[in-house]
Amino acid sequence: MSNSHNLSIEENYKRMIDTPVKDLILTLAVPTIISMLITSFYSMTDTIFVSHIGTTASAAVGIVFSLMSIIQAIGITFGQGSANVVARLLGAKENKRADEVFSTAFFTSIGVALCLSFFGLTHMTGLVRFLGSTSTIEPLAIAYGSTILIGAPWMTVCYTMNNNLRSEGKATLGMIGMSSGAIINVILDPVFIFGLDLGIRGAALATIISQLISFGILLSHFLYHRSNLHLSIRNFRFSWKVYKDIFKVGLPSLIRNLMGTVSVICLNVFAGPFGDAAIAAMSITNRIMQFLNSALIGFGQGFQPVSGFSWGAKRYDRLKKAFVFCVKVGVSSFAIIGFLCFLGANSIIRVFISDPKVLEIGTVAIRFQCILMPFMAFNTLSGMLFQSTNHGAKSSVLALARQGIFFVPLIATLPKFVGILGIQISQPIADLLSVVLSLALVFPFMKELSEPDSSL
């Protein structure tokens, strides 16, 4: 199985359908987890080094994090939307259509990112203010964000390519591309920020250069036929049917990522009255939780190709077994991780910054979120189950609930009554409410999968 990237289409199909579920998921998940952790580490690296410049600089990175989330959302929407469709098409042996879906997603994601870059660069001041910047943070946020926007097109399409490599069971190839860029980023950050004295702009420059390297490596997998998917402008289809298929599955990813962006903007806006230290603390907390959640998403993305192939091949028994296995592993793992992070919350924040006020606010915020970590695992895996089985509406509802329907009213209301504590507890409460909704949707679906005469 270690040479899976050399398998023919038929051999890869048999591997995805016949390999024991636990072995297959772990084989796909390990490189995907590494890839996701590395992707998350891009922003973590910038935060760690920039925080040494000062609290205001750290807050500026937190402001632009929302913009980076939008860039990521575009790539993941086209990436996961096309990848899940591709997985089902490969499972149904419709290889030509799979090529068309992937090529369409590839070129469209670049085009959308170019539009975002143009809009952002021509409206930079208004954009950072909308994202929650204070007057003291604004100049640094503009310097960082304008540089990031230059690299948006290739940053976006990296996510699209990485997801499609995973969809055909070749997650290791995606990991190679993403990890190479991340290593370069870690090296370039201190060189550009301190060595060349470029400050916060140097951090952004290091990020877009490292992402460009990832782009080149990921693209080479398709150009040199290490992937079974054929990337070509001739396979591009400006077709409503193709886009409908992509967005039906990709919409939950878009909602989930945009809601993440909305939640960060809300955090910045409602933490603003408590000072730059509050914005910096919640920004660092967000980065830490995103880093941990990226491991869970990576694990879930190891599950999704198995789910998509099984759904396409009508192997519902295999699909159910895969989901139950992932829930057991995800919930138990995050219970342990949450416990350890709860104990070490203060030390974790100190890795980023030593400002006493930031430490105080951030430590409490992390501890509250750690308590609800196992619930977060179930919510994420439930959404991925529905997304990979063509139940876009249910997946969209779950994506919208956690950081939209539940979170936004909480973050807008609680600080008025309990001050900064309201900022710190809004997300954990939203997680608790979301798990109730997840259970209400998952149990009936699992019951349908178990019925021998199911019409699924």
TrEMBL record:
One GO cellular component term: plasma membrane
Key words of the record: Antibiotic resistance, Cell membrane, Membrane, Transmembrane, Transmembrane helix, Transport
One record GO biological process: response to antibiotic
Location within or outside the cell: Cell membrane
Membrane topology listed for this record: Multi-pass membrane protein
Any one Gene Ontology molecular-function term assigned to this protein's record: antiporter activity
Spans through the membrane: 24-44, 56-79, 100-121, 141-161, 173-196, 202-224, 322-345, 365-386, 398-423
Family of the protein in this entry: Belongs to the multi antimicrobial extrusion (MATE) (TC 2.A.66.1) family. MepA subfamily.
Name this polypeptide is given: Multidrug export protein MepA
Species of provenance: Sphaerochaeta pleomorpha (strain ATCC BAA-1885 / DSM 22778 / Grapes)
